[in-house]
Write a structure and sequence with these properties.
Elements lengths: L1 E6 L9 H6 L6 E8 H4 L7 H19 L5 E5 L1 H11 L2 E7 L4 H16 L3 E5 L21 H14 L25 H4 L19 H4 L12 H6 L4 H11 L1 H19 L21 H9 L5 H13 L4 H14 L4 H11 L5 H12 L14 H8 L4 H6 L14 H15 L3
Parallel strand pairs: 1-2, 1-4, 2-3, 4-5
The structure holds flavin-adenine dinucleotide.
Amino acid sequence: EITFFWFRRDLRLEDNVGLFFALQSKFPVVPLFIFDLAILDNLPKDDPRVGFIHESLAKINQQLEELGSAILIKKGKTQEVWGQLLQEFDVKEVYFNKDYEPYAITRDMAIVALLKSKNISSFAYKDQVIFEEKEISKSDGLPYTVYTPYKNKWLEKYNSIAPAAEYDASNTFFNFHKGHFAFPSLGQIGFEESAIKVIPHNLKNIGNYHETRDFPALDTTSHLSPHLRFGTVSIRKLVNWAARKNQVFLSELIWREFFMQILFSFPKVVSHNFKSAYDGIQWRNDEEDFKRWCSGTTGYPMVDAGMRELNATGYMHNRVRMVVASFLCKHLLINWQWGEAYFAQKLLDFELSANVGNWQWAAGTGCDAAPYFRVFNPEIQQKKFDEKGIYIRKWIPEFDLGYGAPMVDHAFARDRAIATYKAGILK
Ligand code: FAD
């Protein structure tokens, strides 16, 4: 008789709500992770995000081994894997933390129904966010679609509750199952070792975050995004700390939850404009232009440096993400969905809610988005945020030898974008 704790995007033992409650169960707990083929089959074999998951699981397994346990790793279609697990084990209970993406919601509903059909109890917890689903809503119960009032309500609620509880499971660790499960080697699971090293946390200068965060060469942002994506840090601990250290940094963590609640309340945003009035925009969608953008050869140094950083590392500084996204949608008039898909493929911190939310923001099609007539000038952005060209030279070593001409003139592209948007926006 056992209890399963099912890890998904909460890859840590520390301050893990679902795990904490699983360990209170009267049955020994078997920690489980499933490599979901429905996701993996669409990724290249050496996808760095899979590497990141491997590294995180290896770390968890090491910690579990010290406790005399180990993680059970399976690979397959999630529902089929659960079918096999229920034959293999006498399962009494299943615990997991909630995931709010549309695919995950559907998957979890199917698993919960399967468990229920076998009289197995399942328990789902909020772990990934401070406030989930509709917890931060307008007084009429409808979701916020504008960030600032959302943030104000979020802060009001956060400040009115007791400081975040710590779900410290150390006292209950003895309840782990003592059996030894094989931790399959990377080879057995079928992945090549990842080239990605876990990026060091960059929190020592966070007190100046509000002044330095926009300058890519300073590189003073936290680099926590992949950790938040895969749950290798606790959001409760981070928010608790951020609230004391820097309000602007805290407000970025609130943007994260804002876009999560937008995706939860309006799942159509994954593939449709949030503002359907923008559906009439005639995108140019030129494939050659798109290739130049992807490869970082547009002739605009700030855009090219950003895309080259992304291609080389799976990361791009936020200010530069805004510049490249605006350039794609407005200068090149390419549908934001193309850019969103490219980022989704490349970003180590790819998060559906944040990616879609920010892309729609840049395109002007999203909730609370940049106005359509605001067209970033990539050269002015460069002067403002990388005046000495330090970031640019890092990614474009040939910069000083004379850089190629821009693929499209800024003034021309700006006028064309505004005219195209104006003509396409339904009154
Ligand atoms: P910090 O500045 O240290 O911020 C701390 C954390 O706050 C981040 O790790 C992230 O979780 C959150 N955060 C910060 N800014 C935002 C934001 N604008 N929206 C939502 N959350 C935010 N972020 C992702 O995590 N995944 C994505 O797929 C993603 N796609 C983006 C696409 C575009 C076009 C743009 C403009 C931004 C995107 N962002 C995305 C938001 C932001 O660029 C990254 O979160 C940030 O650059 C990550 O670096 P950091 O951890 O050092 O950030």
